[in-house]
Structures are given as structure tokens and as C-alpha cells.
Amino acid sequence: MASTFPKVGHKPFPVSDYETALLQGRVVDNLASNKLRIPRDIAELPFFVPSKRRLRDVSYCRSRNDLEFRAASGEGMYIPHVWDMDIFLVIVSEAFRQIMAADANSKMFDCDKTVYVVPRNLLEAANRNSGGSDYQDLFNCMSRLSSARYTLKGPIGHCPKGVQQEIRLINGWKKIYSDNNRFPRGMAIRLSPWLYRQLLSTQNLLAVDPAYMKIRSGIGRRLYSLCRKHAHGQPNGINFKISTLHQKFGAEQRLPQFTKSLKDLAISAVPGYILDWLPLSKAGEAMLNIRPDPHHEFVGALVRTHRDNRLIEKCEFLNEVTLQKYAPLDDTDFLKKCSERYPGANLLDLKKKFIAWNEEKGTELRSVSQAFESFVRSDLQRNVREAGSAY
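== Replication initiator protein A ==
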């Protein structure tokens, strides 16, 4: 299948310095090392459906009727499915990395917001093989991503309430060939303005567990993205009506078959989250409770990061009288000794976390300095354990 090129009216792809270097073989991407990320809106709404061959439109309307979503295929292509999201996640993650790395003089992200990748590296980062048919599957996936059209109406993303907008995920893509090679050396992918705006703020992005790529079930993959969006930060979990999940999945199955498919899904198929079936509601509807597993390595790290940020923010609102008893921590000689004893520790943030944490516990300290040193040492030891080495 031929590459999907920009339609009439689109500006042609620019030949950038990066593309020239790519053709000359001077660029080596290591996409597999990037942290996977997904925009919040895409995790919540059925941009990607479980069925691989869905041509019919997908609709979703929130119960409060303040959000309307519709996904439609274009050019006779199927709507992107959850297996296409593997590739999309890597593209988003690489685009975000390039945006963060770009400086004022960089041409990597010009007015067309183009990201360049090596097809082989893209497949490897998506945990796929890199044989002949795998490349064709990749190009078919890119065609589906560029042909799908989405309609959003409601207070979501950068769309004002009551305003309808039509969006795309990517505006076009092309293969980059060298003169003496019949296989593409690289790919240029132009992000849509809507997606580019999503990537400009880390608040719009969710980190994705690398174990996501090993989920074998299409329903399990879609369920993971919903868990990541809704259940994170909810110690007691969140309850979903199965009818609501059916809509959010964009599933073609009828509700009874969809419910059976969820019940057949193994708990371990959604890494980092625990699924519990609840008694039927008063209306006789089946309900599912989803909560994060604090013992899971990836989820536990996210929970700790969220807790640490909360403690730092809480410390800034404590009054001066409360902070006065922690004055020994401001001593210059003490801070210098700590920085020498614990190199690499962010003492400013750790001090805020320690103060807020101790105020929550309400412990009367005999020695503030000794308690703080113990807190710093424990924090470093925890970080080292997670990194798999010894301090």
C-alpha cells in the first residue's frame, strides 16, 4: 500500500536538516528507551476500538450530556484499533521527547510539527517483529491513523464548552527513501494541531506502564487505558457500570457478550490494577470496581510521586509559627554536611516533604536534624532499591 501523502491544500513536507541526516545514515534513534505516554483525552474516549475491522462510526455521550464524541473512518479505511495504539504511543512519546529537546534554533519542530522516526526502531519500541509483513502492517496502521476523523463537543482538552471541533491524530505521513535503497530509511509524520497542543503540557499526558505492550487481549488493552485515566489516585478505586464501559470501549459486541468478555478477562491481564465485580445495582446493572495495586512496581512509583508532590505543596501553606520549629534545617553548615554525606539528594524538596509528613503524623521530635537525616537516608535507599543497585 502506498504512503498517505498530504491532501491538496496542505503544505508539502519540508526537507529539514534532520531529514537530510536521516538519509545519510547519520541519525540513530533509540525509541525503545523512551517513556511511553498517552494524552488524557485519548485514554478516556474511544479513539481506538477493540475491533480490528470496524467501519461503522463510534459514538459516545457522557451521562451528563455535556460531552459528545464521534469517530469515523475515512477513505474506506477501518477505524484505528487498540493494536494501532502501540505505534501511536511510541510516536507520541518520541514527539514529546523531541519537543522537550528542541531549542529556539532547532528546525526539528517547525510550523508543520513533523516528527521523524526510523521504521525498524518504531516496530521494536512497540514490541513488534521487524520482518517484511510487519513493515506493511506498520504502513497500514499509519494509513488508518491519518484517515480517521474525530468530532468532539464539550469541555474537554482545549475545546470550550458547547463548541464542536473536528480533529485528526496525524495530518499526514511519508516514507523517506535514499537513492540506492528500495526500503524506506525513515518516516516523517506530521502531527495534527490538536495533538500537538496536547503534547505541550505534561499535565495532559499520562505515563504508561511498559507492561502494557505485553497485554494480549484487545479488551485488556482498552481497559488498561481507562484504568490509567480514571482509577489512578483513587485508593478505594472507582466503580463503573458495564453499560458505561461498553460505550467507552466503542465495542461492537452486544452488552451481554461484552459483559461475558470482561468476566473472562484474567485479573493479571491489566497490570497494576485490581478488578472486582460488585453486586448488581438497584437498577439491576452489573458493576465493576477498578483500583490501583499499591504493590505493583510501576503504579506504586506513581502513587509515591503523587504523594511527594502533595507533601511539597502542603508544606508551602503551613504558617510561620509551625515552620519555626524546623529552623535548624535552614542552618548553612548543616545543609552543607548533608549535601556532602548524601550527594545527589534534592534537600529543598526533601525538607518540604519531611515537614509536611511530620506535621501529618504529629510527632514530637527530640532532634529535628537527626530525624531529617534519617528521612533523607530512607528516601535515597528507597530510590536505590527501585533502581536495582545498592547505596
